[in-house]
From TrEMBL:
Keyword Oxidoreductase carried by entry: yes
Listed EC numbers: 1.4.-.-
Domain Glutamate synthase: residue ranges: 162-476
Chain segments annotated as coiled-coil in the UniProt record: none
SUPFAM superfamilies linked to this entry: FMN-linked oxidoreductases
UniProt enzyme class: oxidoreductase
Family named by the database record: Belongs to the glutamate synthase family.
UniProt protein name: FMN-binding glutamate synthase family protein
Organism the protein comes from: Thalassospira aquimaris
Keywords noted in UniProt: Oxidoreductase
InterPro entries tied to this protein: Aldolase_TIM (IPR013785), GltB (IPR024188), Glu_synthdom (IPR002932), YerD (IPR027283)
Family annotation (Pfam families): Glu_synthase (PF01645)
GO MF term (any one): oxidoreductase activity
Length: 557
């Protein structure tokens, strides 16, 4: 008995072997139909023998045949969780409630909720809008902001909600076409992502934000360096309304990438300006500049080469001192970007190392607040517009982001949901079940651009309508008038802060003023360590910076 207990893991393969023998006997002695189970059980027995002798999976060696059930269940575990176990508020990474809201607005169906909120309004982190007893009614929901600083010759009136960067290659041709057609119909902008402008962008005819990343796709020489001639040609396209220089991406800041030669199609090669049959590398850093001043000079060059179109850069905040170095370079060179897009670390991506996605980069709200206040401190905020991205799918998300200092918002996954994304999280496998994040022609066929473009435009329109309603409820006439004090943030179960306390606007020009503010000693200390000439730190700290304590004591005297 002990022998059978210790070796019960082999019962399945033993049983399959016996059934194979019995089926073979019955096939010869009883009926030829028994050949069917004989073949099935025989094949299973062969699988079991293979399991016993393979060396890659210990569980298969110990549990031949039966262990495959574990791998089968694991393969669709996310779907089981999403459809059967997940609550409406589980954010993995977007809650069912958030996805449902996008689906409803994209389809133009009822998006109201009965019976009351399902949010835990007494939970730490919960935030809400303070409404007015004298609400307003807003009829024009085509909210726009003009992007273009003093050096810009072709400013662009940008919608307050646009499609964030997603490259052709990461997304299918049908998905790009549907997004761009939707942008055309809805009158908002579509960021190309670093994969440059494809034939599907051009066919859609919508406004484009041409992103220039470290690979310089669409503007590169054969050796991967930046080509002024090719950039000027690409930027001259009437569809291109703004140029965005990507320094880093929220989901994987500081990380480059490679598109293997096997995955490069003729269409991808055409869009990116790269050869077939050769790995396509996106370096982690730009080759055209290595200093803050170099960055500003490159932005000035891009603006000149584009004929004066708005040029800005996108980044996820890392070392705050480095961003201050960029600001110092602006002051020293007199060159300012027309806009800065702050990407939060909660932003999406087709694929990222887990450590980068989870633990590298600053979340959007903190990053946006820092950028906004740093520009205010340098006296440059009125010259530079700020865009923000990072899980922004609802009117409340937009309103709160505008209140924290943004001039407009971008969304990637929100518009993917509008296309029909079911959050299968298989973007990196080329097996997207709805034809969005795949280059498989058969899978792409599931996505019909004409139908989905209507949903994209409708989602934008209904979200802007919802933004108008929430703006009116606060007693405002334009969502750009939202300020931190329009929001409350719960810190603990029985405590909450005014938005001005949680995310205050710091004084204009305080970083460049002659007198330092003791309460902002940390800001002044970091500003003092920043340099326009280099991103490298002046000193390596092994403890608190002495200057903070010294300056605070001097100011108090």
């Amino acid at each position: 008995m002990k022998f059978f207990i210790l070796n019960q893991r082999y019962f399945v393969i033993t049983g399959v072997a016996l059934l194979t023998v019995v089926s073979l006997i019955c096939a010869g002695a009883v009926d030829s139909w028994f050949w069917v189970p004989a073949v099935i059980f025989g094949l299973l027995f062969v699988v079991g023998l293979h399991d016993l002798h393979q060396t890659k999976h210990s569980i298969l060696r110990n549990y031949p045949i039966s262990a495959h059930i574990r791998f089968i269940l694991e393969s669709f575990r996310p779907e089981i969780r999403q459809y059967l176990l997940e609550s409406d508020q589980d954010e993995i990474p977007f809650s069912r409630q958030a996805r449902g809201l996008v689906y409803q607005r994209a389809k133009g169906v009822e998006d109201k909720r009965p019976f009351g909120t399902i949010e835990d309004v007494y939970k730490s982190g919960y935030s809400w809008i303070t409404h007015s007893v004298a609400p307003t009614h807003i009829t024009d929901t085509d909210f726009r902001v003009r992007v273009g600083g003093p050096h810009c010759k072709q400013p662009y009136d940008c919608s307050l909600y646009n499609i964030s960067a997603m490259s052709f290659g990461a997304l299918s041709g049908n998905a790009i076409l549907a997004l761009n057609k939707g942008a055309k119909k809805g009158g908002f902008a579509h960021d190309t992502g670093e994969g440059s402008i494809s034939r599907y962008h051009r066919e859609g005819g919508g406004d484009l934000i041409y992103q220039v990343a470290s690979g310089y796709f669409g503007a590169r020489n054969d050796d991967g360096t930046f080509s002024e001639e090719k950039f000027a040609k690409t930027a001259a396209d009437p569809q291109v309304k703004m140029i965005e220089l990507k320094l880093s991406q929220g989901a994987k800041p500081g990380h480059g990438g490679m598109l293997p030669a096997a995955k490069i199609t003729a269409e991808i090669a055409e869009a990116r300006g790269i050869p077939m049959g050769k790995d396509c590398v996106s370096p982690s850093a730009h080759s055209t500049f290595s200093t803050p001043i170099g960055l500003m000079e490159f932005i000035g060059k891009l603006r000149d080469l584009s004929g004066g179109k708005p040029v800005g850069f996108k980044l996820c905040i890392g070392h705050r001192r480095e961003f201050m170095s960029i600001i110092k370079a602006m002051l020293k060179t007199g060159i300012t970007p027309d806009f800065i897009v702050v990407d939060g670390k909660e932003g999406g991506t087709g694929a990222a190392p887990v450590e980068f996605a989870n633990r590298v980069g600053m979340p959007m709200q903190e990053g946006l607040t820092f950028v906004h206040n740093a520009l205010r401190g340098a006296g440059l905020r009125d010259q530079i517009k700020i865009g923000a991205a990072g899980k922004i799918v609802s009117a409340f998300d937009i309103a709160r982001t505008l209140a924290l200092g943004a001039d407009w918002c971008n969304a990637a996954r929100g518009f993917m949901f509008a296309l029909g994304c079911i959050q299968a999280q298989s973007c990196h496998t080329n097996c997207c079940p709805v034809g969005i994040a795949t280059q498989d022609k058969i899978r792409q066929r599931a996505l019909v651009p004409e139908d989905k473009s209507e949903r994209v435009a409708r989602f934008h329109k209904n979200t802007m309508h919802a933004l108008a309603e929430i703006t009116g409820a606060a007693g405002l006439t334009d969502p750009r008038n939202f300020m931190p004090y329009h929001f409350m943030v719960r810190q603990k179960d029985n405590e909450f802060l005014d938005g001005n306390e949680a995310y205050p606007y710091l004084p204009e020009g305080f970083l460049v003023a002659e007198t330092e503010i003791p309460e902002l000693a940390e800001w002044h200390s970091r500003w003092g360590r920043a340099s326009a000439e280099t991103f490298a730190p002046k000193e390596i700290p092994f403890g608190p910076y002495k200057r903070q304590a010294d300056d605070a004591s001097k100011a108090a005297q």
